[in-house]
Write a structure and sequence with these properties.
Elements (H helix, E strand, L loop, with lengths): L1 H23 L2 H21 L12 H30 L7 H9 L2 H18 L7 H15 L2 H12 L14 H12 L2 H36 L9 H12 L1 H15 L1 H25 L7 H17 L1 H12 L5 H34 L1 H26 L3 H6 L4 E6 L5 E4 L5 E2 L4 E6 L2 E6 L2 E11 L1
Antiparallel strand pairs: 1-2, 1-6, 2-3, 4-5, 5-6
Helix pairs in contact: 1-2, 1-3, 1-15, 2-3, 2-6, 2-7, 3-4, 3-14, 3-15, 4-11, 4-14, 5-10, 9-13, 9-14, 9-15, 9-16, 10-13, 11-12, 11-13, 12-13, 12-14, 12-16, 14-15, 15-16
């Protein structure tokens, strides 16, 4: 659990740090850096930890593993904001931005299935290790870590070879003063921090449920099918978990389709409500079944439905909304902060649910412990739905919102620039006016170039 905690800590650092670097040094450079951390952490975990076998007093292996896993966490965490903003900003004309961003998230779900498939293959290879048990154990350990470096290495090399986008969002010598001024104003804008409560809060609540389920999935599956003592890692164990995880793929595909019709915010809301319904139904099944084999396929079907909804609703909306709600200048930073809040929720879920299950096991058996975990899932899913309703705007309404009158206040204390109701620019004694999102740049006679902040009145 300590190693797992180190990975989560690295992910939080990566989400916040790499998200900020995406706005400062540009999306491409920050993306390459985070891919480098993933490759370094994966290969480091595969080849660096070495130590005497069965020596419980030698902690050097775990210390090295903790360091490289932290580096891996930084890379994986940084990938969240950078992949989202890159996808959103590469949307072609006429393409739905939420759908484009959601497609970038699709591969997380197949990736969650891969460890079970790799684990099953390795178990098949090592069915009768005999005297070579320790050799096979080393092979399993290092192969699983090392395989994680292959695809990130390919993406890193592809990104380095690609042309264009190197200074996308980066602060360059030419525009650094203007860009810093814009970002400074935006980082102080209460509107964006209120939106962060919505994007980060819903992500936090969802990840408590999502990671609690992901970490606890093998225990739930074993509780449903009750394998014989000493036979937990059988073919059935791997295939049952693979089937549960596979239910997430149609969930993601359905979400990408539905988002075009109901929007990301509403998708997250309906997803939270159906997650609460699914986990509530599964908890009731565990409580009413008196025999270990009773309703096992009903339980398994409901659990597959829960995993479908976990991947269909908030899992996509929490990733997409920060990329479409926040403006270009601070998009990567606020997406990283939102994702970091979610990863803190993942830590809460990962460490809270085993403790809850243990308390339940002591008082009423394994089924009772699982039921407690599931009811807590229901509670957090309902909180997520309430947070979505009261803290998140509908991104489709924001996009269609008509701005009837805008006021631009310059840093120069005596200069006021504004747009009238017809969006015609009226800037007295100003020249070379350029608009950029929520800001404009203009020259005022002998006054140097100013950056004006848009103020909107409906």
């Amino acid at each position: 659990m300590v190693i797992l905690g180190v990975v989560f800590a690295g992910a939080v650092v990566g989400m916040g740090g790499m998200g900020y670097l995406g706005d400062i040094m540009g999306r491409k450079r920050a993306y390459c850096l985070t891919m480098f951390f993933i490759v370094l952490g994966s290969l480091g975990a595969a080849v660096l930890p070495w130590g005497p076998a069965h020596d419980t007093t030698d902690n050097s292996v775990f210390m090295i593993l903790a360091v490289v896993r932290f580096v891996l966490g930084v890379g994986v965490g940084g990938l969240y904001p950078l992949s989202a903003v890159k996808a959103a900003e590469s949307t072609s004309e006429g393409e739905n931005i939420t759908t484009r961003t959601a497609k970038a998230f699709f591969w997380q779900t197949p990736g969650a299935i891969t460890p079970y498939i790799v684990g099953w293959i390795i178990v098949q290879m090592c069915r009768n290790p005999g005297s070579n048990y320790h050799v096979f154990a080393q092979l399993e350990f290092r192969l699983i870590f090392g395989l994680g470096a292959i695809f990130p290495m390919y993406l890193l090399l592809s990104e380095l070879r690609s042309s264009g986008g190197a200074d996308d969002g980066a602060v360059t010598t030419k525009d650094s003063e203007e860009t810093i001024a814009k970002r400074s104003l935006m980082m102080k804008d209460k509107q964006y921090w209120k939106q962060l409560i919505g994007t980060g809060g819903t992500w936090f609540l969802f990840d408590i449920a999502y990671y609690g389920t992901a970490i606890f999935q093998p225990q739930i599956v074993n509780c449903i099918f009750q394998p014989a003592v000493g036979h937990a890692l059988t073919d059935d164990f791997f295939w049952h978990n693979i089937v549960v995880s596979l239910a997430g793929i149609p969930g993601v595909l359905f979400a990408i389709w539905a988002m075009k019709h109901i929007g990301a915010r509403n998708l997250g809301l309906y997803g939270f409500l159906l997650i609460a319904l699914g986990f509530g139904a599964l908890a009731i099944c565990f409580q009413v079944a008196t025999d270990t084999n009773e309703l096992k396929w009903v339980k398994f079907g409901i659990f597959c439905f829960c995993n479908f909804m976990l991947n269909c609703g908030p899992n996509i909306s929490t990733y997409v909304l920060p990329a479409v709600l926040f403006p270009f200048e601070v998009r990567s930073t606020f997406h990283g902060l939102s994702a970091g809040a979610g990863k803190i929720g993942a830590v809460v879920g990962t460490f809270m649910y085993p403790a809850l299950a243990s308390q339940g096991n002591n008082s009423g058996g394994v089924e009772h412990g699982i039921a407690i975990v599931l009811w807590v899932q229901v509670f957090f899913a309902i909180l997520g739905a309430l947070a979505t309703v009261f803290c998140l705007p509908d991104e489709r309404l924001l996009a269609k919102q008509k701005k009837t009158r805008r006021y631009h206040r310059c840093f120069h204390p005596t200069r006021i620039c504004k747009l009238d109701s017809n969006q015609s620019l009226r800037v007295p004694n100003c020249s070379n006016v350029e608009t950029s999102g929520m800001f404009l740049k203009y020259n005022t006679g002998n006054t140097s170039t100013c950056i004006a902040r848009i103020r909107t009145k409906m």
